[in-house]
Specification:
Chain lengths: ~15, ~260
Protein backbone atom coordinates (compact mmCIF):
# COMPACT_ATOMS: atom_id res chain seq x y z
CA UNK A 1 0.00 0.00 0.00
CA UNK A 2 2.27 2.71 -1.22
CA UNK A 3 1.65 5.95 -3.02
CA UNK A 4 3.69 7.88 -5.50
CA UNK A 5 3.84 11.66 -5.61
CA UNK A 6 2.32 13.59 -8.49
CA UNK A 7 5.30 15.18 -10.27
CA UNK A 8 3.24 18.05 -11.64
CA UNK A 9 2.15 19.03 -8.13
CA UNK A 10 5.68 18.43 -6.86
CA UNK A 11 7.39 20.75 -9.33
CA UNK A 12 4.67 23.38 -9.13
CA UNK A 13 5.18 23.57 -5.39
CA UNK A 14 9.00 23.69 -5.50
CA UNK B 1 9.18 28.02 -39.84
CA UNK B 2 11.14 25.00 -38.69
CA UNK B 3 13.52 23.10 -40.89
CA UNK B 4 16.00 20.64 -39.48
CA UNK B 5 18.20 18.06 -41.11
CA UNK B 6 19.71 15.20 -39.18
CA UNK B 7 22.30 13.13 -41.02
CA UNK B 8 22.21 10.45 -38.34
CA UNK B 9 18.49 9.82 -38.73
CA UNK B 10 18.64 6.64 -36.67
CA UNK B 11 19.13 8.84 -33.65
CA UNK B 12 15.65 10.30 -33.99
CA UNK B 13 14.22 6.81 -34.44
CA UNK B 14 15.92 5.75 -31.19
CA UNK B 15 14.62 8.84 -29.39
CA UNK B 16 11.04 7.98 -30.33
CA UNK B 17 11.47 4.38 -29.24
CA UNK B 18 12.64 5.61 -25.86
CA UNK B 19 9.64 7.83 -25.13
CA UNK B 20 6.64 6.47 -27.02
CA UNK B 21 5.72 3.84 -24.44
CA UNK B 22 5.81 6.38 -21.63
CA UNK B 23 3.97 9.26 -23.24
CA UNK B 24 1.15 9.14 -25.80
CA UNK B 25 0.94 12.75 -26.94
CA UNK B 26 3.45 15.55 -26.49
CA UNK B 27 4.36 19.01 -27.66
CA UNK B 28 7.72 19.32 -29.37
CA UNK B 29 9.11 22.78 -28.71
CA UNK B 30 11.10 24.42 -31.47
CA UNK B 31 13.46 27.28 -30.71
CA UNK B 32 16.86 28.58 -31.72
CA UNK B 33 18.31 26.46 -28.91
CA UNK B 34 17.01 23.23 -30.37
CA UNK B 35 14.23 20.73 -30.67
CA UNK B 36 12.93 19.75 -27.24
CA UNK B 37 10.13 18.05 -25.41
CA UNK B 38 8.85 17.86 -21.88
CA UNK B 39 6.02 15.48 -21.14
CA UNK B 40 4.53 13.42 -18.33
CA UNK B 41 3.13 9.97 -18.36
CA UNK B 42 -0.63 9.79 -17.89
CA UNK B 43 -0.37 9.02 -14.17
CA UNK B 44 1.94 12.02 -13.52
CA UNK B 45 4.51 9.80 -11.83
CA UNK B 46 7.17 10.06 -14.53
CA UNK B 47 8.36 12.96 -16.62
CA UNK B 48 10.57 12.92 -19.68
CA UNK B 49 12.71 15.81 -20.84
CA UNK B 50 14.46 15.69 -24.21
CA UNK B 51 16.83 18.18 -25.77
CA UNK B 52 18.37 17.96 -29.22
CA UNK B 53 20.54 21.06 -29.55
CA UNK B 54 20.48 22.98 -32.82
CA UNK B 55 24.28 22.62 -33.19
CA UNK B 56 23.87 18.87 -33.48
CA UNK B 57 21.93 19.15 -36.73
CA UNK B 58 23.53 19.52 -40.12
CA UNK B 59 20.98 22.21 -40.87
CA UNK B 60 18.73 23.90 -38.33
CA UNK B 61 16.40 26.79 -38.96
CA UNK B 62 13.76 28.00 -36.55
CA UNK B 63 12.50 31.54 -37.13
CA UNK B 64 10.39 31.80 -33.99
CA UNK B 65 9.55 29.69 -30.97
CA UNK B 66 6.54 27.44 -31.37
CA UNK B 67 5.24 24.02 -30.39
CA UNK B 68 3.96 21.13 -32.44
CA UNK B 69 1.64 18.62 -30.78
CA UNK B 70 2.26 15.07 -31.91
CA UNK B 71 0.96 11.63 -31.16
CA UNK B 72 4.19 9.78 -30.43
CA UNK B 73 2.81 6.42 -31.54
CA UNK B 74 2.00 7.90 -34.94
CA UNK B 75 5.35 9.68 -35.11
CA UNK B 76 7.08 6.40 -34.34
CA UNK B 77 5.13 4.67 -37.13
CA UNK B 78 6.36 7.30 -39.58
CA UNK B 79 9.98 7.21 -38.40
CA UNK B 80 10.03 3.42 -38.61
CA UNK B 81 9.67 3.92 -42.36
CA UNK B 82 13.08 5.62 -42.42
CA UNK B 83 16.10 3.41 -42.97
CA UNK B 84 18.71 3.34 -40.23
CA UNK B 85 21.22 5.05 -42.52
CA UNK B 86 18.74 7.61 -43.84
CA UNK B 87 19.10 11.34 -43.45
CA UNK B 88 15.93 12.77 -41.87
CA UNK B 89 14.64 16.26 -42.58
CA UNK B 90 11.74 17.69 -40.58
CA UNK B 91 9.71 20.65 -41.82
CA UNK B 92 6.92 22.41 -40.00
CA UNK B 93 5.26 25.81 -39.75
CA UNK B 94 4.03 27.81 -36.81
CA UNK B 95 0.26 27.36 -36.83
CA UNK B 96 0.42 24.59 -39.40
CA UNK B 97 -1.61 21.45 -38.90
CA UNK B 98 0.92 19.01 -40.35
CA UNK B 99 4.61 18.19 -40.09
CA UNK B 100 6.66 16.68 -42.90
CA UNK B 101 9.33 14.03 -42.43
CA UNK B 102 11.65 13.50 -45.39
CA UNK B 103 13.89 10.44 -45.56
CA UNK B 104 16.88 10.35 -47.93
CA UNK B 105 18.93 7.25 -48.46
CA UNK B 106 22.71 7.83 -48.06
CA UNK B 107 23.25 7.44 -51.82
CA UNK B 108 20.35 9.83 -52.54
CA UNK B 109 18.68 7.25 -54.76
CA UNK B 110 15.53 7.07 -52.63
CA UNK B 111 13.66 10.01 -51.22
CA UNK B 112 10.43 9.65 -49.28
CA UNK B 113 8.23 12.20 -47.61
CA UNK B 114 5.62 11.54 -44.98
CA UNK B 115 3.18 14.15 -43.77
CA UNK B 116 1.74 13.68 -40.30
CA UNK B 117 -1.25 15.43 -38.79
CA UNK B 118 -0.50 17.53 -35.74
CA UNK B 119 -2.78 17.87 -32.74
CA UNK B 120 -3.57 20.51 -30.15
CA UNK B 121 -2.17 19.50 -26.80
CA UNK B 122 -2.77 21.54 -23.70
CA UNK B 123 0.32 21.00 -21.61
CA UNK B 124 2.03 22.97 -18.91
CA UNK B 125 5.80 23.36 -19.01
CA UNK B 126 7.18 22.61 -15.57
CA UNK B 127 10.19 24.43 -14.23
CA UNK B 128 12.57 21.81 -12.87
CA UNK B 129 15.04 23.45 -10.51
CA UNK B 130 18.70 22.48 -10.40
CA UNK B 131 19.20 20.32 -7.35
CA UNK B 132 21.99 18.90 -5.26
CA UNK B 133 21.83 15.13 -5.15
CA UNK B 134 22.92 12.89 -2.30
CA UNK B 135 24.35 10.38 -4.73
CA UNK B 136 25.13 10.22 -8.43
CA UNK B 137 25.83 6.86 -10.04
CA UNK B 138 27.23 6.55 -13.54
CA UNK B 139 27.27 3.08 -15.01
CA UNK B 140 27.04 1.28 -18.36
CA UNK B 141 23.51 1.69 -19.70
CA UNK B 142 23.37 -1.96 -20.78
CA UNK B 143 24.22 -3.06 -17.23
CA UNK B 144 21.47 -0.90 -15.74
CA UNK B 145 18.99 -2.25 -18.31
CA UNK B 146 19.98 -5.82 -17.49
CA UNK B 147 19.52 -5.22 -13.75
CA UNK B 148 16.07 -3.66 -14.19
CA UNK B 149 14.97 -6.47 -16.50
CA UNK B 150 16.28 -9.19 -14.19
CA UNK B 151 14.72 -7.70 -11.07
CA UNK B 152 11.35 -7.18 -12.72
CA UNK B 153 11.02 -10.93 -13.16
CA UNK B 154 11.06 -11.21 -9.36
CA UNK B 155 9.41 -8.07 -8.01
CA UNK B 156 7.50 -4.92 -8.98
CA UNK B 157 9.68 -2.38 -7.23
CA UNK B 158 13.40 -1.75 -6.88
CA UNK B 159 15.10 -0.27 -3.86
CA UNK B 160 18.18 1.63 -4.98
CA UNK B 161 20.57 2.16 -2.09
CA UNK B 162 23.86 3.99 -2.33
CA UNK B 163 26.42 3.57 0.42
CA UNK B 164 30.18 3.76 0.49
CA UNK B 165 30.15 0.05 -0.40
CA UNK B 166 28.50 0.72 -3.75
CA UNK B 167 25.04 0.87 -5.26
CA UNK B 168 22.61 -1.89 -4.38
CA UNK B 169 19.50 -2.76 -6.40
CA UNK B 170 17.05 -4.90 -4.41
CA UNK B 171 13.63 -6.35 -4.99
CA UNK B 172 11.29 -8.85 -3.43
CA UNK B 173 8.33 -10.74 -4.75
CA UNK B 174 6.25 -13.84 -4.19
CA UNK B 175 9.05 -16.18 -5.26
CA UNK B 176 11.81 -14.59 -3.21
CA UNK B 177 14.26 -11.71 -3.07
CA UNK B 178 17.19 -10.38 -5.09
CA UNK B 179 20.07 -8.05 -4.36
CA UNK B 180 22.57 -6.83 -6.93
CA UNK B 181 25.48 -4.74 -5.72
CA UNK B 182 27.64 -2.76 -8.14
CA UNK B 183 30.86 -1.42 -6.72
CA UNK B 184 32.74 1.54 -8.04
CA UNK B 185 34.98 0.27 -10.80
CA UNK B 186 37.17 2.68 -12.67
CA UNK B 187 39.90 0.22 -13.66
CA UNK B 188 38.32 -0.74 -16.96
CA UNK B 189 39.66 -0.68 -20.50
CA UNK B 190 37.07 1.79 -21.75
CA UNK B 191 35.69 4.77 -19.78
CA UNK B 192 32.10 3.87 -20.74
CA UNK B 193 32.47 0.55 -18.91
CA UNK B 194 33.21 2.24 -15.60
CA UNK B 195 30.88 2.45 -12.64
CA UNK B 196 31.43 5.70 -10.81
CA UNK B 197 29.67 6.57 -7.56
CA UNK B 198 29.74 10.09 -6.16
CA UNK B 199 28.13 10.02 -2.73
CA UNK B 200 27.55 12.98 -0.44
CA UNK B 201 25.47 10.90 1.94
CA UNK B 202 23.83 7.47 1.85
CA UNK B 203 20.45 7.34 0.16
CA UNK B 204 17.87 4.60 -0.30
CA UNK B 205 14.74 5.01 -2.42
CA UNK B 206 12.07 2.72 -3.85
CA UNK B 207 10.84 2.92 -7.45
CA UNK B 208 8.41 1.07 -9.68
CA UNK B 209 10.38 -1.24 -11.97
CA UNK B 210 7.78 -0.80 -14.71
CA UNK B 211 8.96 2.79 -15.17
CA UNK B 212 12.65 1.99 -14.81
CA UNK B 213 12.31 -0.64 -17.53
CA UNK B 214 10.58 1.90 -19.73
CA UNK B 215 13.47 4.35 -19.23
CA UNK B 216 16.01 1.74 -20.29
CA UNK B 217 14.52 1.86 -23.81
CA UNK B 218 16.90 4.83 -24.19
CA UNK B 219 19.95 2.59 -23.75
CA UNK B 220 20.73 2.51 -27.52
CA UNK B 221 21.24 6.29 -27.34
CA UNK B 222 24.12 6.17 -24.88
CA UNK B 223 26.69 3.71 -23.53
CA UNK B 224 26.32 5.15 -20.06
CA UNK B 225 23.46 6.19 -17.81
CA UNK B 226 23.57 8.58 -14.87
CA UNK B 227 21.23 8.04 -11.94
CA UNK B 228 20.91 10.99 -9.55
CA UNK B 229 19.30 10.26 -6.20
CA UNK B 230 18.22 12.37 -3.28
CA UNK B 231 15.69 11.65 -0.57
CA UNK B 232 12.59 13.83 -1.09
CA UNK B 233 13.39 14.36 -4.78
CA UNK B 234 12.40 12.51 -7.93
CA UNK B 235 15.22 10.35 -9.27
CA UNK B 236 16.78 11.54 -12.52
CA UNK B 237 17.85 8.88 -15.00
CA UNK B 238 19.84 10.58 -17.73
CA UNK B 239 21.10 9.32 -21.08
CA UNK B 240 23.38 11.76 -22.87
CA UNK B 241 22.90 11.92 -26.61
CA UNK B 242 26.38 12.42 -28.03
CA UNK B 243 27.04 16.00 -29.17
CA UNK B 244 23.32 16.75 -29.26
CA UNK B 245 21.81 16.82 -25.82
CA UNK B 246 20.08 14.42 -23.51
CA UNK B 247 17.03 12.48 -22.56
CA UNK B 248 16.20 12.72 -18.85
CA UNK B 249 13.56 10.78 -17.02
CA UNK B 250 12.25 11.94 -13.66
CA UNK B 251 10.43 9.46 -11.46
CA UNK B 252 8.72 9.99 -8.14
CA UNK B 253 9.84 7.53 -5.48
CA UNK B 254 7.35 5.20 -3.91
CA UNK B 255 6.50 6.31 -0.43
CA UNK B 256 4.89 4.60 2.51
CA UNK B 257 1.16 5.13 2.73
Amino acid sequence: NKHQADLEKFYNSH
Amino acid sequence: MLELRLVQGSLLKKVLESIKDLVNDANFDCSATGFSLQAMDSSHVALVSLLLRSEGFEHYRCDKNFSMGMNLGNMSKMLKCAGNDDIITIKGDDGGDTITFMFESPSQDKIADFEMKLMDIDSEHLGIPEAEYHAIVRMPSAEFARICKDLSSIGDTVIISVTKEGVKFSTKGDIGTANIVCRQNTTVDKPEEATIIEMQEPVSLTFALRYMNSFTKASPLSNTVTISLSSELPVVVEYKIAEMGYIRYYLAPKIED
